[in-house]
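Please, structure for the following, as tokens.
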Amino acid sequence: MSLSGAFLHIVKTEMLNEGLINSRVEKIHQPSREEIFLSLHTKNGSKKLLLSANPASARVCLTSKHAENPQNPPMFCRLLRKRLGNGRLTEISQDGFERIILFRFNCRNEIGDEESIILLVEIMGRSNNIILLIEKDNTLRIIDALKRITDEVSSVRRVLPGLVYEPPPRETRLSLINFTKSELMNALKEREQERLNKALIKIFEGICPLFAREAAFVSSGQIDILTVDLTVESTERLLKFLEKARFSLINSPNPVMLISSEKKPFGFTFIDIEQYGGEIEVRPYVSANALLDNFYAERANAERMKQRSGSILKTLSNRYGRVLRKIDARRNDLAACAGREKFRKWGDLISANIHAMEKGKTLLIAQDFETGENVEVPLDRKLTPAKNAQKYYTEYKKMQTAEKTLTELIKDGENELIYLDSVLEAASRAVGESQLLEIKRELIEAGYLASSLKSAGVNPKKGAKQEKPSEPMKFTSSDGATILVGMNNRQNDVLTLKTAKPHEIWLHTKDIAGSHVIVRDNAPSDKTLEEAAQLAAWFSKARSSNRVPVDYTEVKFVKKPVGAKPGMVIFTNNKTLYVTPNEELYNKLKT
């Protein structure tokens, strides 16, 4: 769901009430391509402001979330630090209910002169942007933008350094705050043949489809009513609903998040919602900023990690495909080796009948030793009988050796697929920069990524301080037992082979890529064991499956073969549980 102009108005008002005006810029970070974090020092302490131009989660809000930052900040981030560093925030404004919010800073340039620098966030679907402007002589000029817009991208409006800023084209619509009854009635009459909810979106500035559907439902009891079918009574109910929304917007907004029956947030607004009946949960929030922060946090983090892990996933997927093709080709070659006994038998028949053969023959008809039937043996007329026999014995040995070699190569390939599967799974669910760096280092050391260790966060200089390894995820079972989950192969090795004690319980999905899970209890209850198995299934490739098999045994029965790849172990004395992954349990047990 996209952020509406009306909801953005509430967010802006809360920011003003939080005392952001006259705050100073402390830090600026850009953890992903389309997100900017500003740390502001206010009279009430530090506040963190998030600006996102991501099409899936565009927003502006105060945030309490932490995002890991890349080692090398992008160019736009460096520019923001140069122009806004230590600047003082003097204005936060919005033009009506347009989805454009302006942050004005009083800054000093390199020679100490004061400058009025503006950071503008445009939330416009695919055209979302964050633009840095400077105001001189009442003219706004573009310093740079997160996304530069050239003539090739848009023939209507360019966004390039040095150009005068031109706001996006704007349609004339009514304001939810100061419209009159007559204005609304005239606008509805012009759209009589449209559905009411669609018409309201075109009539009012800054309202979202959810709000428009609620207005139609409250006024008529149905969402898809045509405007022309409004009765006098339903029109009055519509007016009362809009008046109530206007009062809420100005005086006491009621931010609510909508939670589906699957416990997933799917919408938000600033009024109570009735259209879904009792099928959904309507969760109220004290703050619109906190609501946005929670609504988009998980989605934004997933998108951020998807961007960073994209090259790794592509490399691994390509390698996976190549290994798979090699295995198929070798299996075909192995199948051909199954006929090698024919060559040994032909060699034996030639040797047994060599006394009766002469050079120059092309065919030997001899009796099979086992069946007694006549067998035709092709001969090379250029070779002597002895050399014909030797040729078939050589072919037999060649295929016998090939069978052994191909069997080993196929086994190695299958093991490599298992390993690549485990890394792909870990990379796809990495939740932080440190976890992703560990995966990258592992792949560089294994020869899958052609890059320097330094670019992967490893300082090769002797005695240099190395980055602290990331920690496994920690959970607490309903019975109070600690459950640890490795988030990549390096963590899995450390967790299973160093951290866990011999009599603690080790779990892993059966023949499915996933995490090592350790229950730090020598004799866990059945409840704890089942919850740990559910976590093992959740942190695996079978997350969306039912009745996932999970093996478990004591840690002392888990061994790492010599030369095995990271995360690869063998185990014995195991039993198997069948469980269904549960997101609600994951959220409940997480500590």
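Residues 453-465 have pLDDT under 50 and may be disordered. The CA atoms of residues 323 and 416 lie 8 Å apart.
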